[in-house]
Every structure is written in C-alpha cells, then in structure tokens.
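Example 9 (inverse folding). The structure is encoded as follows.
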C-alpha cells in the first residue's frame, strides 16, 4: 500500500486491484452519485478510486467540493479524482479557483492542477494561480512543493501546447525551471 502513494496517508485496506481493472469495473457500474459518495467514505483503496468513475460530474457542484476534497488522502486519489471526475465537471472553473487559493490543502491544489491539465481548453487565466501555488509551497519549504510542481508542469505543458502565445507569455516555465534547479542541485 505504501508503494502506491507518493504523499499523504495510507489506505486502511488495499486489495491491490490495478487501476485499469478498477476503471473497467466502475464504468460497467454506470453513474450513481449517491453510491459513489458512499464508496468514497469507505477506508478501502479500491472503493475510493472507483467512486470517482461512478460519481456524476454534472452533480459535482461547489456544495460538493468539501466532501470530495476532504477525502483526498494521498496523491493517487488526487490524480484519479482529476482524471475521472474533476476535469469533467461543469463547475471546474469554480473548483480551480477554490482549490488553488492560499491555504487550500496541498492535495486539493495538486488535484486541481492535474485536472486543469486534462481540461479540453486550459485557460491562460489558470497560469498565474498555478505559479503562485508553487511559489507559496516553495517559500514555505513545504514537502508538497515537488508535488505541486508536478501538477504545475502538467498544466503548463497543456496550456503551452495550445499555442505559442501561451507558451511564451507564461513566466511560470522559467520560475519552475529555476526553482527545481536549485532544489535539485542542493
């Protein structure tokens, strides 16, 4: 179980079912938001991960942000949430703003950055909050700085691939390169 998490708390139970298998089983179940919420409250890796695929993105509204964010125990859950649920929500812009705000938990910030990277049209407006989130984590010397940097790189790569204007206008790429450079040299 410990090898399956990068940052955060371990799961209570872990049956070791692979993510592709979990995804297949969960998609076969279909959308059932209440059942997904029930599964997400269990302290079982497989059930929590499946919940993201069973949840209804149309029902993932600001009133639900605290529930789903509060259950992000580790980076694996944050990444699967971004992949299966967050990036598909119509309320994603509100989620991005809330979860990248100063004081937001690291795993929520990471999930928001990873989901933004998967968005069909990453917004250039997301670049400044992304850089600021990484800057805050780095200045606090937070252990999560590397995790946030990974999310930032994913988002900036997605935004930069849209057009040259996004790629050249972003001060984020230079900041991240400098920040990672001194950390890796230390």
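The amino acid assigned to each position is listed next.
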């Amino acid at each position: 179980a410990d090898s399956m998490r990068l940052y955060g708390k371990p799961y209570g139970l872990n049956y070791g079912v692979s993510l592709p298998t979990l995804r297949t089983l969960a998609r076969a179940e279909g959308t059932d938001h209440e059942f997904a919420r029930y599964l997400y409250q269990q302290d079982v890796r497989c059930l929590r991960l499946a919940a993201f695929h069973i949840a209804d993105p149309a029902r993932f509204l600001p009133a639900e942000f605290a529930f789903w964010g509060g259950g992000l125990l580790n980076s694996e859950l944050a990444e699967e949430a971004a992949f299966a649920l967050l990036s598909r929500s119509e309320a994603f812009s509100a989620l991005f703003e809330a979860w990248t705000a100063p004081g937001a938990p690291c795993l929520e910030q990471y999930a928001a950055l990873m989901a933004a990277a998967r968005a069909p049209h990453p917004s250039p407006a997301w670049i400044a909050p992304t850089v600021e989130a990484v800057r805050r984590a780095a200045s606090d010397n937070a252990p999560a700085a590397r995790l946030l940097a990974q999310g930032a790189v994913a988002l900036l790569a997605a935004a930069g691939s849209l057009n040259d204007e996004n790629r050249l206008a972003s001060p984020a790429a230079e900041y991240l390169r400098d920040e990672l450079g001194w950390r890796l040299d230390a």
